[in-house]
Request: fold
Amino acid sequence: MGSSANIALRLRDRDLESIFRSECGMRVRTAGKKYLQVYVNFDGYPEGAGADLLSKNMAYEQALAFILEGDRSTVEESYWALNHDHCPPIAVTSPQREYNYLYVLEEIAEGEPLKITYIDRSDDATDLKKYLG
Reply:
C-alpha cells in the first residue's frame, strides 16, 4: 500500500531545550519546539502504520529512540537501517500532517504506553486505539 504518513512525538517539558543525536549521528536541536517528527513512506494507513505503532506499545523513552532513528520506509524500518540515508527527525512547534496521515504520540503517565492520536486527511483527530477497535 502506498500512502505516506508523519509521526510526531510530544516531548517532555524537560526535553524542550535539548540536543539529541539521531541514529545517523546528526544533532537534532529542539530549540523549545514541542515535537519531533518523522516521515513514513509506505503503508501510512491506520490499518498499516497505525496498527504497527500500536503493536509497539511504546513508553516515552522507547518512542524517543524510535523517532531519533529518523525518517522511515515503514514503521518497522528506518531509512538509516535500510540504506544509511541521513534523514533525522525535525523539531516542530506543532505536529504537521504533510502527507495523508499523521500520528501524534503523547505521554499521559510516565512509564506507561503512549496515547496515539490519528489525524486523517480531513484533519479529524481520533484516538487510534478506539479507531482500530
Q: What stands out?
A: The longest helix spans residues 46-56. DSSP finds four helices and ten strands in the chain. The first strand starts at residue 5 and ends at 10. The mean pLDDT is 93.
